[in-house]
Amino acid sequence: MNVLLRITDQCNQDCCFCNVSSDESVPLDEAMRRVRQAKDLRTLSISGGEPTLNKGLLELVREAKKNPGIQFVSLQTNAVTAASSDYARMLKEAGLDEAFVALHSHQEKLSNVLTGSQLWQKTVSGIQNLTAAGIKVVINTVINKATYEQLPEFCLFVGRTFPDVKEICFSFIQPHGRAWKNRSALIPRYSEVVPFLKKALEFCDGCGIAYCNPYCGFPLCLFPAPKKCSSEFLDSPRSSSEKEGVSLVKRDKVQGPACQHCAEKTRCNGVWKKYAEIHGFSELKPFKK
Ligand SMILES: C[S@@+](CC[C@H](N)C(=O)[O-])C[C@H]1O[C@@H](n2cnc3c(N)ncnc32)[C@H](O)[C@@H]1O
User: Fold this and answer.
1) Between 82 and which of 63, 126, 153, 254 could a Cys-Cys bridge form, CB atoms 3.0 to 4.6 Å apart?
2) How far is it, in rounded angstroms, from Cα 245 to Cα 37?
3) Cβ proximity of 57 and 31 under 8 Å
């Protein structure tokens, strides 16, 4: 089982596509209690808001690492706080296994517009400090109308700038929260994205960067790579969580008429209901049985 714990609603960014509402976090003492009592967890993901703004984060990570019932501790962050190399080292000393870092563009200006901040350079330094401290970094990019055409260049940038980053997670903008409010400017059709993503994945293949299609990604028939890279097939931290948000979120996904004849009907979650409201189901191409 995977669990996501949000430990603050505060954030140092103001992303125009953020899907998190302001009442999803638990106080630190409650987070500590849950971490001490956790059993049989494959992954604990600590998130927010921006979790590094919570002064108790390091203690929480230490506590999680003391519990043999938690195999893997991952931190969802924009890495801005890790622009301090001391902070990155403290995360390592606390025992953090992975930083799952949001980076949406290789272009400073565009990234700053999307994140409503002037912090792109700090995120870049933060990623460098985290890898230098010996923490595994996975980059999570939220594909949207403003970024999809540059996905191949983005991967090239990641490969060149962060030689120690070995995985990119290709999320597709989830049409909830602010992303829904800004839907006409932000939410493309999957099929518009596919040719650019295909090139991006070819580049990743060429330079040894692994990639994944997370729960928040594409329906299986539209992700231009083997099905084994999709969360429905993965035994990894990015497989769908069974607790907290995702089980609720699962009810927000729906299959289309063509999916009824698809060989992967029982494994694929289809598309977000809200996505279907905007773009329908016509892109879905069932796998032959
Ligand atoms: C909500 S943030 C919170 C943690 C932290 N502040 C960060 O930036 O990673 C967790 C992850 O959700 C992603 N995210 C936010 N809004 C999203 C959306 N509409 N669709 C898909 N992913 C989204 C972020 O990019 C980030 O990787």
Assistant:
1) 126
2) 19
3) no
For domain 2-243, the question of CATH label 3.40.50.11010 is answered with no
Q: Concatenate the DSSP letters of all residues of 9-41 into one string.
A: S--S---TT----TT----HHHHHHHHHH--SE
pLDDT tens, per residue, the chain with 289 residues? 889 999 999 999 999 999 998 888 999 999 999 999 999 999 999 999 999 999 999 999 999 999 999 999 999 999 999 999 999 999 999 999 999 999 999 999 999 999 999 999 999 999 999 999 999 999 999 999 999 999 999 999 999 999 999 999 999 999 999 999 999 999 999 999 999 999 999 999 998 999 999 988 999 999 999 888 888 777 666 665 554 444 444 568 999 999 999 999 998 989 999 999 999 999 999 999 8
Cβ–ligand 1 distance for 8 under 6 Å, the answer no
Q: List the residue whose alpha carbon is closest to atom 26 of ligand 1.
A: 102
182 CA distance to ligand 1 middle (Å): 15
115 lines ligand 1 (CB under 6 A): no
Q: 287 CA distance to ligand 1 centroid (A)?
A: 30
Work out which ligand 1 atom sits closest to the CA atom of 104. 25
pTM of model > 0.85? yes
Of the residues 47, 123, 271, which should be mutated to test ligand 1's pocket, given the most ligand atoms within 8 Å of the CB?
47
Domain ranges of the chain: 2-243
